[in-house]
Amino acid sequence: MVGENTTLYCHLSPERNAEDMEVRWFRWRLSPAVLVYKDHQEREEEQMAAYQGRTTFVSTDISKGRVALIIHNVTAYDNGIYYCYFQEGRSYDQAIMRLMVATDVVLDPDTAHPELFLSDDQRSVRRGASRQSVPDNPERFDCQPCVLGRESFSSGKHYWEVEVENVMVWAIGVCRDSVERKGEALLVPQNGFWTLEMFGSQYRALSSPETIIPLKERLHRVAIFLDWEAGDVSFYNTRDSLKLLVTHQQPVALARLDMAVSPNRQVSCLLAFLLQLLVLQLPTLDSAPFHVTAPQEPVLALVGSDVELTCLFSTNESAEHVEELRWFRQTRSPAVLLYRAGQEQEDQQMTEYRGRATLVTDGLPDGRATLLIRGVRVSDQGEYRCSFKDNDNSEEASAHLKVAALGSDPHISMEVKENGQIQLECTSSGWFPEPEAQWRTPSGGRLPFTAESRNHDEEGLFTVAASVIITDSSIKNVSCCIQNHLLGQEKEVEISIPVDVTLDPDTAHPHLFLYEDSKSVCLEDSRQILPDRPERFDSWPCVLGRETFTSGRHYWEVEVGDRTDWAIGVCRENVVKKGFDPMTPDNGFWAVELYGNGYWALTPLRTPLRLAGPPRRVGVFLDYESGDISFYNMSDGTLIYTFPSTSFSGPLRPFFCLWSSGKKPLTICPTANGPGKITVIANAQDSIPLSPLGEGSASGETDTLHSKLIPFSPSQVVP
């Protein structure tokens, strides 16, 4: 609710210590942030101005991977998506949740029936024994004891809650602003009302025909969700994890709140009207020996999973001995499932459901007829009708199944055009319904497609391909995101575009000879006569790259081929270049080497590296902010070694060393030296779930979201 405080929870699963991790809450990608926790403290300088002084980071259980964000004095601006992001080195993951800020609803006394008495704060209503002397306004109900809320909605999504505990008769919902206030009219959608009612112990939606809602326990508080553009009005039980009760689906036009309920045992304002309505309908209800209902909300199932569709007798009578129970699609025969004389009739079953569809008989004594479909397919999507037949009477209801599939991790390839521009293509398959593809920059901006295609296979699953051309040389990282809006989930791959590294001749040892526009280096027996500059190595046979890095993430590749005796990596720009200081992180070097027949990480005690096979091309990855330097075998995408995270300060530069002479050079792989495809490192992130309902929880609070820390697992993209 506006003005209150709310808490958003997030934790790692499985449980692990997050004290040394970066935790970030943000709205629109990574920056600016709602709150940043880094290096064991909050970073106020990175916080959005709108949240400064209004947030609290709860880290009491951070050693168990549990954190929370408290937002104080919630405003309407706070409504929407929030990302919870954990990062440790190159490992990270995030979860998404939606915060829904409740609309501040008050009742409109000018619309209240004369027998309705409003509280001083106009937030509750009771019905009195006498009529008040009030003006007969055009907007006032004169026959139906009803009252509207002051608020009017002509767009957007809105939500509020109503206390109904211990009230025996009530009706709440939404109506058009133009509904008839004088005389009697049914509270049905045709008359501009979308309403949920309770009379005695029975709940129902006043649709046409009405929908009985079987509940095991009485409702205490009901949440109402209005989606104006979608034309949906939904009612939820707030005490059962926001379990959906019913959804009205119809264009709403200009809507107002139709309120007929209040706490503290106050009498519903629709009492007289409901009594009359029930009397009129009793003959109709008595004429049918049973009534069949099914959930109005579609059931969602993943391709390959199992799903249950249930219909039931409104009277909860046993269905064990009914003459016939039939589940079917467009035509009654053949059926999805036919249950007759106490057993399934397989010879009457549709071919595509044989062996996959069966009846769950456990619920029959309670009047529940549950259809179990195994191995859900795309073709299973659609309407299912449940029909009961007993003697000469029959009733049926319909349920709707929605099918979805989360596709493969996106696969990215890179091609350098003749004009030097870089074209990226992202592909992913196995999606349903048709997914949306996006190319994003690190700041969250979108890049326009140069080409896009979608097609589906024989099973109905979609493959999407989207291409983009990078014309801005300053862009070093982009991501491809494939979204399934029905599931509220996405898969995202981030790629690093290779840096165009060249060798710096002013740093090269005199025995090192540079070739191919300073892209290759060889160690020769002869010594060149070169100026003895301060930046030149005079003992170690090494050379630096021209490029310096003081922020961001960077990546380049080195062709080592079958050459032996080399070292490559990253160093501080100000490392000692004279003499034989050890090449270790303490001295500003982070490198791996091949010496003789062994691979080593140049740590103080030299760490031996056990590789599945000799790499012919090595990728070097630098993440300045996280303090990570990693090396990968680009032949198969496997990790060679990652140095422990450190805190960088000052410029860093690529560096290369050769320990023996020979004709075979070390060569920096080109990024824009003509057409051809090259390898790209891709970091595929697990699907990111939205909170329950696909939109988030209500009342300014959210359920705890689960996140697992995903290790950075590059995969080679084969040209």
Note down, in words, how this protein is organized.
The chain has a seven-stranded antiparallel sheet, with no helix packed on it. A six-stranded antiparallel sheet has the order 11-20-13-14-15-16, with no helix packed on it. It has 719 residues and is mostly beta strands. The protein starts with 5 loop residues before the first strand and ends with a strand. A hairpin with a 2-residue loop joins strand 44 and strand 45. It has five domains: 94 residues, Immunoglobulin-like, CATH 2.60.40.10; 99 residues, Sandwich (Jelly Rolls), CATH 2.60.120.920; 114 residues, Immunoglobulins (Immunoglobulin-like), CATH 2.60.40.10; 86 residues, Sandwich (Immunoglobulin-like), CATH 2.60.40; 157 residues, Jelly Rolls, CATH 2.60.120.920. 38% of the residues are buried. The radius of gyration is 34 Å and the shape is elongated. It has one helix and 55 strands.
